[in-house]
Amino acid sequence: MQATMLPCFKGIRRGLIYLRVIKLCRRENKVSSDDGGFRISVEDRDFMKTCIAVVSTCTFGGGDDLYQPIGMSETSLRKVCYVAFWDEVTLSTQEAAGKTIGEDHMIGKWRIVIVRDLPFADQRLNGKIPKMLSHRLFLQARYSIWVDSKSQFRRDPLGVLEALLWRTNSVLAISEHGARSSVYDEGKAVVKKHKATPEEVDVQLTQYRLDGFPDDKRFNGKKALAEASIIVRENTPMTNLFMCLWFNEAVRFTSRDQLSFPYALRQLNLQNINMFPVCTRRDLVNSMGHKRKAKPLAFRDLRIVSTRL
C-alpha cells in the first residue's frame, strides 16, 4: 500500500483499527503479487494494463458456463474490456464441451485469461481475488464492474457507470440484500442453507460482537447487508482499501462475503456508497444459476496465506 493512501483513513476513529487495517492490507499484499495473486502470461498482463474500464467475471474449478454479455453499445465495446478469468480445470471443462478459445484469446465478447498457481485450496476464496482485488489485476483501470459467473450482464457498462456512480456521486455501488438486513440474521440463514458450518459462523459473528458491531439494520439510511453478485466501483484509494479489508475478512473467517461486507463498511466508515435496490440488480443481470459444483484444488504446495493478526 503506497504511503499516499494513508491520509484516506479519515473515517477511522480508533488508532487500533487504523493499525489493524494497515497490517491486514500488508498481508493481503502477499496474496497480490505482480500478477495479482495468480500466475498470468505476459501477453495477458500486457493486455490487462490497457484496460481503463473493465467488466470481469471468473470461473474456477469448472463450475459455471460463460454467459455472453448483451445490451452494450458500440462505444462500450471499444472502450471497455470484458475479461473472464479461468483456471486450468475450467479450461479443460469448457474445451470438453466444445468451447475453445480463439487465437485472439476471445470467446465471443470475453477475453479469456488463464490463471495458474491459485493460492487457496478453496475455490470460493480464489474467486474473491478477481472479485475484490481487481485493482491489483487491472493496474490502470479507473472503473470496474464485477459480475458473478452465475449471471449474464445485460446492460451497457458505460450507462451503468453513469447511472450508479456518476449521477449519484458514488464511488461504490452494490445491491441491497433482498431478504435480510442484519448480519446476525444472515449468519443464521447461511448455517441453515449449509453454506458454512455453525462453528465458522459463530467464530466470525462472536468476534464482530466483541468488536462492537451492532445488530442494527441500516447504514446511512440503507440496508447494511449486501448481495454482491454485481459490484460497480471507481478504483479510488479509499475503495481499493475497502476492498482490501473486505477480502481479508473473507479469508480470515468464512468466504460468505455477505457477512463481512457490513463489518468492513463500518470499520472504514466508507461514504458515497450507492446501495441500490434489488429491482435494479435484476435489471442489470439475468440470473442463470450455478451449473455445476466447482472442483476443489488438490492439496499440494499451496501458498495458503493467513490474515490473522
UniProtKB/TrEMBL annotation:
It comes from Stephania japonica. This is TOD1/MUCI70 glycosyltransferase-like domain-containing protein. PANTHER family: ALKALINE CERAMIDASE-RELATED (PTHR12956), OS01G0749100 PROTEIN (PTHR12956:SF17). InterPro entries: TOD1_MUCI70, TOD1_MUCI70_glycTrfase_dom. It comes from the Eukaryota. Residues 31-290 form the TOD1/MUCI70 glycosyltransferase-like domain.
